[in-house]
Amino acid sequence: MQTPLNTILLYARNMQASAEFYQQYFGFISTGEIVEGLIELKSPHGGAHILIHQAAKSIKSGQVSVKLIFDVEDIETFKQESAAKGLQFGSTHQANGYSFANAKDPDKNSIAISSRAFRNNTEPKPCS
To answer: Which residues sit opposite 7 in a β-bridge?
Structure first.
């Protein structure tokens, strides 16, 4: 049985602001309409959908238990384009043949851009 990851649900204090954030900076498409308590965002380039759900008052914003990582081939260009729109990423870090940078969404969820998917090495590295 195949079990592909297709949807990520994010809890947000301000559903509209979170939906607009992912549309503006990562190109997701949405009507912005709340249907069944959710705003659905789809990427025109494939990959997982994002569902935005109203956060309960008991949910603490910004707890790092999940990080959304977006595949970006040219990290520095993406950072510059995002900064021009108002999103600041942190320092660019170099890893094993790729680079990445971190930021936060409006609800302080951790996000990153990473060129890992575009690195030239085809051998998978062991997890440690």
So the answer is: 49
Identify whether the C-beta of residue 113 lies closer than 8 Å to the C-beta of residue 89: yes
If we measure between CA atoms, which residue out of 34, 42, 43, 1 comes closest to residue 15?
Answer: 34
pLDDT tens digit at each of 128 positions of the chain? 566 778 898 988 899 999 999 999 999 999 999 998 999 999 998 999 999 999 888 777 766 557 898 999 999 999 999 999 999 999 999 988 999 999 999 988 889 999 988 987 555 555 54
Is residue 115 within 8 Å of 100, Cβ to Cβ?
A: yes
Report the C-alpha gap between 77 and 13 in whole angstroms.
30
Domains in the chain and their CATH numbers? Answer: 7-118 (3.10.180.10)
pTM for this predicted structure: 0.76
